Amino acid sequence: MKRITILLILSLIGLSASAQIVYSTDFKGEAKVKVYVTEFKGEADLLVYKTEFKGEAKDNKGLWYFTQFKGEAKKTIYFTDFKGEADLIVYFTEFKGEAGWRKNSKKHLMY
To answer: What is the pTM (predicted TM-score) of this model?
Structure first.
């Protein structure tokens, strides 16, 4: 029983540590999360900073690393042109320090 508990804890740590490695698909049905990109910071659920380093993309804090390989991603997303279709509204920021959740109620979407 102790061994199972330890394995479960380690697997959960592993999932949350790299939950921000994303793959952008062209197919809506393939995506776990539908994302709309807004031009207005104030209407975003999440402020996202696109990082070039996979090691920075961790802890569900809005630091996203886009991978070219679907199998490497922790989340598959689809960018929709319609806000009403989206599960999550994001704003891409130029500053790493601005990244983060504005609406905690949507946080579960990226775990």
So the answer is: 0.81
Separation between Cα atoms, residue 47 and residue 42, nearest integer Å: 10
Q: Residues 45, 47, 52, 55: is their CA dihedral positive or negative?
A: negative
Domain ranges for the chain? 2-104
21-34: pLDDT as tens digits: 999 999 999 999 99
Q: What is the DSSP letter of 13?
A: H
pLDDT tens track for 28-56 = 999 999 999 999 999 999 999 999 999 99
How far CA 45 is from CA of 36, 40, 62, 80, 107, in Å, comes to 10, 11, 10, 15, 9
